[in-house]
Structure formats: structure tokens, C-alpha cells
């Protein structure tokens, strides 16, 4: 049979056509890979891709649900942090069942968790250490989250030498005071720069100050979330992941408290053993899960780090 493209020139032509075809296929494959990466990266900021908002909204639900499981384990000193693996498996099972009805495939897989320590006082009393000291260090060289003070007796607060919660790294120091004067409660925050902001409220005898959430009895306290200049911040902003946390004038308050720190090496001299107060307990500081969400229109996968109540360093 005669060649369709005779001679040497024909062979060269075939090679050129074949090379062009291979390059075209390569470019198409590369475009698909790049577009896929761009889609995955931008999904978090886009809602114009059909179904993408569902993936992002359910990611929030996964974070909230896993966070609730972490809090449930941490709040019970009799439970072990290792229980988080079974908890995530159960969340995955329930999510898969619920979402399959909607034509969605959801996978939530436990990857790992970081241990920390819960510092707590469960019985109402003054915020002294196990030795009765009113000025003491709760933990050194840590980052704290979920810092919550439950005041059970407003009348125990003082207007002078008030209860003070301190976070400092040796150079910079944040202070938060809780005081009472004339039936009103004041929460005052002083930044390392010396700026002071305060919230004064008419509160009941019992109330809660959630330092990391920036609220008093569930209502925003701007002293806890922004500076005098209006710049948004959180208590201990700028101190990084290594600072000391202290209580001063622990006899100027009565109630309970709880917080999680990212260290398993907390000195025990100032603490009792559970169930005596105050105590320390092994806790989950953060947990990582793999999250996948698929529909006929969207495929999304990411790692979620869950640390309830954590604020930026």
C-alpha cells in the first residue's frame, strides 16, 4: 500500500502532528489540574458555584459538632481524650446518613489531636490556689483558650484591689479586672500599651465573664474585643503561643472557672487532685479531621482544625 504521506517529508510531518497532539493532550490535562486546584482554593470565598455554599455551610456544622464533642470530653474529668476518635466516627456515621437523603456524600475522618490541660475550679469559692495563696500562677509558657469565669457572688467583688487575671510574656502584659461599685459590675481590660477599656453593667448576683468570647452573660463586652482606638483584638493578642497566666487578688471574687491550655506540663504544686479544687485534668486542646463533601456538582475536601474558643495569637 502506498504511504499517505510519501517519503522523508511525510514521516517528519507525521512526527510533527503526533507531537502536536501529545502537547494538546498535556495542556488539557494541565488545565484541568490547575482549574481543580483553583476551584478548591477559592471555594471558601465563593458562593457562585452551584452547591458550593452547601459545602461551606456544612463545614461550619462539622466544626461546631466536633467542637461540642471536644467540650463534652474536656468538661468531664472522668472522660479520656482518646474518646474523641469514637466521637468523630459517630459524627461521620450520623452525617453520612443525614446527607445521603439529600443526595450529598459527606465524609468526616479523625486524623489526630493535640493534648493540653484543663485548669478548673468546679465548686464556688475564692480563686486561691491549693495553698490558699491569693496571687499565683495558673500556668507558665502556654496559650489559653475557653477562659471562662462564673461569678456566683457579686457582693464578694471589690472596688479597690479587685480580682485581676493576667497574661504576660515577661515583656508585655495584659490585665483584666472584675470589680463592683455601687451595685454595678465593671470589667476593665488594660493592654500592654497601657490602653484601658471597660464595660460597666447592672448584673445579677451570679453572672459569667467569657474572656475569649468577649462577652458578659452572653452579651458583647467591647473592652474584651477591641482597643480604645477601635482596633479589633482579643485578650492576650500579640503574646503568641508562650505566655504566663496569673491570678491576682483571688480573694476578691467567688465562683468557678475553667480554661484549656496547650501544654501537658503544668506545675501541680498550686493544684489539688480532682475532685478537690482547684485541679488540673488532661484535655484535648485541638483535633484535626478530614472533611469531604460531594454532590453531582461539587467535590470539596479540606482539613479542619477544631479548637473551641481559641482566638488568634
TrEMBL record:
Pfam family membership, one: DUF7261
Keywords linked to the UniProt accession: Membrane, Transmembrane, Transmembrane helix
Annotated protein name in UniProt: Uncharacterized protein
Domain of life where this protein originates: Archaea
Membrane is among the record's keywords: yes
Regions crossing the membrane: 15-39
Source species: Halovenus carboxidivorans
Amino acid at each position: 500500500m502506498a504511504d499517505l504521506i510519501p517519503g522523508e517529508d511525510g514521516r517528519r510531518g507525521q512526527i510533527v502532528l503526533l507531537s502536536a497532539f501529545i502537547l494538546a493532550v498535556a495542556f488539557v490535562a494541565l488545565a484541568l489540574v490547575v482549574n481543580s486546584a483553583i476551584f478548591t482554593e477559592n471555594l471558601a470565598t465563593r458562593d457562585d458555584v452551584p452547591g458550593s455554599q452547601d459545602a461551606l455551610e456544612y463545614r461550619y456544622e462539622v466544626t461546631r459538632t466536633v467542637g461540642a464533642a471536644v467540650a463534652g470530653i474536656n468538661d468531664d474529668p472522668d472522660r479520656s481524650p482518646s474518646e474523641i476518635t469514637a466521637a468523630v466516627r459517630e459524627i461521620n456515621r450520623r452525617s453520612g446518613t443525614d446527607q445521603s437523603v439529600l443526595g450529598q456524600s459527606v465524609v468526616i475522618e479523625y486524623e489526630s489531636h493535640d493534648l493540653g490541660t484543663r485548669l478548673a475550679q468546679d465548686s464556688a469559692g475564692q480563686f486561691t490556689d491549693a495553698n490558699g495563696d491569693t496571687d499565683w500562677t495558673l500556668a507558665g509558657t502556654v496559650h489559653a483558650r475557653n477562659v471562662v469565669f462564673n461569678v456566683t457572688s457579686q457582693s464578694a467583688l471589690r472596688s479597690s484591689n479587685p480580682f485581676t487575671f493576667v497574661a504576660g510574656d515577661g515583656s508585655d502584659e495584659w490585665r483584666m479586672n472584675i470589680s463592683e461599685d455601687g451595685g454595678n459590675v465593671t470589667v476593665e481590660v488594660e493592654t500592654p500599651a497601657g490602653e484601658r477599656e471597660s464595660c460597666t453593667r447592672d448584673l445579677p448576683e451570679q453572672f459569667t465573664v467569657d474572656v475569649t468570647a468577649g462577652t458578659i452573660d452572653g452579651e458583647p463586652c467591647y473592652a474584651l474585643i477591641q482597643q480604645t482606638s477601635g482596633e479589633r483584638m482579643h485578650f492576650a493578642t500579640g503574646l503568641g503561643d508562650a505566655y504566663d497566666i496569673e491570678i491576682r487578688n483571688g480573694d476578691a471574687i467567688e465562683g468557678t472557672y475553667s480554661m484549656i491550655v496547650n501544654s501537658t506540663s503544668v506545675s501541680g504544686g498550686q493544684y489539688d487532685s480532682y475532685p478537690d479544687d482547684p485541679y488540673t485534668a488532661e484535655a484535648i486542646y485541638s483535633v484535626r479531621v478530614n472533611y469531604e463533601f460531594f454532590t453531582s456538582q461539587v467535590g470539596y475536601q479540606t482539613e479542619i482544625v477544631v479548637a473551641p474558643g481559641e482566638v488568634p495569637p
